[in-house]
Amino acid sequence: MKVKIKGWNTVAVWKWLANDDKCGICRAPFDGCCSDCKVPGDDCPLVWGVCSHCFHMHCIMKWLAAQQNQICPMCRQDWQLKSE
Amino acid sequence: MYELMTMASMMEDSPNAAKRPNFSAISNSNSNGISKTNSVLMVKSGVAKKLVIKNFREKPKLPEDYHAETWKKLKEAVVAIQSSTPISYCLEELYQAVENMCSYQKASQLYENLREVIEQHVKETVEPYIRGVQDRKIFLKEMEACWQAHCRQMIMIRSIFLYLDRRYVLQTPSIPSIWDMGLELFRKHVIGQQLAQTRTVDGLLMLIESERQGDVVDRLLLKSLLRMLSDLQIYQDVFEHRFLQATDALYTAEGRRLMQELDVPEYLAHVDKRLQEENERVLHYLDGGTRWALIHTVERQLISEHLGSLLAKGLENLLDNNRIQDLSLMYNLFSRVKNGLVELCTHFNSYIKKKGRTIVIDPEKDKSMVQDLLDFKDKMDNIVLTCFQKSEKFVNSVKEAFEHFINQRPNKPAELIAKFVDSKLRMGNKEATEEELERLLDKIMVIFRFIHGKDVFEAFYKKDLAKRLLVGKSASVDAEKSMLSKLKQECGGAFTSKLEGMFKDMELSRDINVAFKQYVANLRTDFDSAIDLTVNILTMGYWPTYPLVEVNLPKEMVQYQEIFNKFYLGKHSGRKLQWQPTLGQCMLKAIFDNGKKELQVSLFQALVLLLFNESEDLSYDDIKTATNIEEGELKRTLQSLACGKARVLMKEPKGKDVTEEDKFKYNLEFTNKLFRVKINQIQMKETNEEQKATEERVFQDRQYQIDAAIVRIMKMRKTLSHQLLVSELYNQLKFPVTPVDLKKRIESLIDRDYMARDKENPKQYNYVA
Ligand SMILES: [Zn+2]
Ligand SMILES: [Zn+2]
Ligand SMILES: [Zn+2]
């Protein structure tokens, strides 16, 4: 062995596992956060519905609070959180 | 009882000062030669005072011819004074005589008699004498002598007739005091004569002109004669007007001539000298009342008249050569005249705009642009501080001019400022101490303040900051934080939130790595690696976007990544990790014939070197296939390993550049005096493409911000005219935009149904919910 790795300093970018790049409610990219937050990350998490649509948690909560029926704003199916 | 007064007290409490305003010849007597007379009189009156009491006790009887006798005695005394012969009576006797005359109702006649004697003298003695002299200078001297003699005589006469002055004249407003009567007679019979007057004034003007030409003249003579004109109350009428006319004519001609003959600094120095001279003239012999008009005339003819030419001809040169003293003088002189400083400021402003433009506009000079800007700002600030008295108008003008010219070239200055800051914050910048660096950053912030498109700065700054943080190249965390807080102060939290996010990611990553080490230690698998892994986890939105690259990693590394993935996603569900091999760094242990070395390399360099564990010789294509590194990147990597300063690979054939036909070999004979060797990557020259890519990102971000602003405004206002919407946007947007840009974005939002044109009024928009 002529060469051996001793140290490795590397970089990874984390992304949401979303099937779209924008939130269907606030239309901001998932790389950012909802319109009420400033910092993307655990403070402004994403949630996935059983219908497979995905939103900022803050956005879907606001949306549901203003609706009588608990339906997904994208596909109008009943909104249910997908359990992991 | 009467009292004798000394000359001093007589002057001070003269009760009817209004009646004799022209006392200057006496009060300013030092140069008039009257003071001697004063002291003689004072001694005499002191002696006489003893007699006062005696006289008071014995009141004399009045002989029949008393009035005639007494007047005879008094007249004798007056004539003696006028002919400078000794007085044969003691002063006490004369004082008493005057008092007696007044007591016996002869004051009026006494006054008339006195006036006759004085008039006689002035008319018969002084007037013809003056008329006779021909030579101008002698004439002036004679005139002055006559005047001085007149004053001297009048003072003495007045002191003898003091009782008359105080009792009779004071109570009779229609007649002038004895002193004024003397002046009146002198004016009437001497200077009032046309010939004498003309010759006096001509003579005075001639003397002044010759002094202005540089000759030495008798200033005392000038002063005395001008004082005479003032005392006679004809200074303004017969002298001042003609003097100012002559001054005006002289300096009109001089200004025109010297503007041709002298360069601007010489000219300014000359004007300064002239102003000093004229001020001295006022100090030494002119009446103080002339000062304003005189100085104003000089200022007008030498400065005001040539303001434009002086600035056009001289300012640029003075500023170019940093002529501090000349600039100070220019400011001081210009501040004296109307619009002087306004004009100076306007020209100063254009100068900065013109010079500044040459600093930023030429791509050839991009390398030195920021340093040149800093130097130029320092220079202009220093001039405003030391030459222009830190005047607010000039301070603001510098700001306005910088803001104007620096934005003449879009984007580039912002980009170069960001890169300049990077060069100062990067490790290896040993040229500055912490304090110096801090001061420099402050100065850069001042320049940065003028930039309109600050988002361009942010894009490039972010790119460089990312490199400094991820490659561990930052010189000082304190300096980084300090710069960040300066940016925050300047542009607000929104501007720096992403940059702060980058620092936050770095801190979070530290914690994650500590936790990961524990996680690995507790793993119940047979995974055992000697590699010390550190992962920086980036939040997408904060950092620049990096191109997605897939390379082939050795099995051990892939395994390690997978373990980390599992660890990380276990803590953060709903996420995925995207590895960025371009930013990887490795520390290698390498064995050469001469011993072990530690090599500090990029991941790509490491991947190439690791291949030589298995083979002796590798072709370019072998390496490319094995690593899957993109072509350009691979060529640069091989070049750094085989053609750089530390050649750990050997290349066949030799050469500076790497081609696809090259073959490579591990260089066992590699030597280096250091144990730890850093192999520099060959920096891809920031190509036009990369440049454009960053600019493009900025441009896209701007589109997005414009859209967001339009939607925000429309959501709030519901209905808005095009005009109002555009002006709102100009208020809100922090980067330069054109009306065409805005129109395009509005059209695009209408197409996408965010808003709609009003059906009635096409120039009005409605928000679509
Ligand atoms: Zn959202
Ligand atoms: Zn949120
Ligand atoms: Zn759905």
Automatic annotation (TrEMBL), chain A:
Residues 34-76 form the RING-type domain. The lineage of its organism: Eukaryota, Metazoa, Ecdysozoa, Arthropoda, Hexapoda. Belongs to the RING-box family. Coiled coil: none annotated. This is Anaphase-promoting complex subunit 11. It comes from Orchesella dallaii. Keywords: Cell cycle, Cell division, Metal-binding, Mitosis, Ubl conjugation pathway, Zinc, Zinc-finger. It comes from the Eukaryota. InterPro entries: RING-box_E3_Ubiquitin_Ligase, RING-H2_APC11, Znf_RING, Znf_RING/FYVE/PHD.
TrEMBL record, chain B:
Pfam families: Cullin, Cullin_AB, Cullin_Nedd8. The lineage of its organism: Eukaryota, Metazoa, Ecdysozoa, Arthropoda, Hexapoda. This is Cullin family profile domain-containing protein. Transmembrane segments: none annotated. InterPro entries: Cullin, Cullin-like_AB, Cullin_CS, Cullin_homology, Cullin_homology_sf, Cullin_N, Cullin_neddylation_domain, Cullin_repeat-like_dom_sf. It comes from Orchesella dallaii. It comes from the Eukaryota. Belongs to the cullin family. Keywords: Ubl conjugation. Residues 412-642 form the Cullin family profile domain. Gene3D superfamilies: Cullin Repeats, Cullin, Chain C, Domain 2, Winged helix-like DNA-binding domain superfamily/Winged helix DNA-binding domain.
